[in-house]
């Protein structure tokens, strides 16, 4: 049976443990492949499922990684079927997770596929920064907007990008990746790309990095040192572990 781990546990754990102990490094390429896998899953729900499905609660903890670090979209408890495709939206009570909620959906109660796109853009920013969407009263989308300057090296994102992915060299395509993420989190749904467009953009970024986007993630070790079963919020809130520190581990063997 494949192991499944929630994305942000993986990001935080594999960023900071000794690579020799875990056998896994959550480097830039792996993050791109996680983003691509999740984006393809959402694009399938929006464009190939009949009727289309709006997930309504896309967030990092609802993206699971198997033992090859391939991403799977999970938890469809809040999902909605888009039965009337001509209307293009479902009028419904606002539900979801703060920090990931589409502001237009929040104001109008009109849920569309672009609501998932917004949430996915936030996940993309998490992959780049290894920060939660709302941290110490600061919203990740606004923080990236505040520092981002396309006229400067790495778009002036040095202060907010996870240092583990820029430690040795500037990751290819990171600026483009952030551009796509910021298009996803536009205030108005009409200005956001579709998930199919996001998939294509991430595939292009992976090609820019010199890889084939059709190749699955490389296999990993047979066991992980992952705080599986620990509440993600507890990890975030534990003051003993800072953004650049270590997290406690529990060894998980394949079932």
Q: In DSSP terms, counting alpha (H) and pi (I) runs of 4 or more, how many helices?
A: 9
The portion of residues assigned to helices is 25-40%
Number of domains: 1
Sheet/helix structural class: alpha+beta
Which outline best applies? globular
Query: Using only CA atoms, what is the Rg?
Result: 18 Å
What's the count of strands? 11
Low-confidence stretches: 12-23, 217-255
The CATH C-level class name: Mainly Alpha
Explained architecture:
The protein has 255 residues and is of the alpha+beta class. The protein has a single domain, classed as Transferase(Phosphotransferase) domain 1 (Transferase(Phosphotransferase), domain 1). It contains nine helices and eleven strands. It is globular. The model is unreliable at 12-23 and 217-255 (pLDDT under 50).
Strand and helix layout:
Elements: E1 5-6, H1 7-16, H2 19-22, H3 28-47, E2 53-54, E3 63-65, E4 71-73, E5 80-81, E6 90-91, H4 103-108, E7 110-111, H5 113-129, E8 134-135, E9 138-139, H6 140-147, H7 174-184, H8 195-208, E10 224-225, H9 232-237, E11 251-252
Antiparallel strand pairs: 1-3, 2-5, 3-4, 6-7, 8-9, 10-11
Helix pairs in contact: 3-5, 3-8, 5-7, 7-8
Which characteristics define this entry?
single chain, two-stranded antiparallel sheet, globular, 255 residues, disordered C terminus, 9% strand, 3-stranded antiparallel beta sheet, alpha+beta, Transferase(Phosphotransferase), domain 1
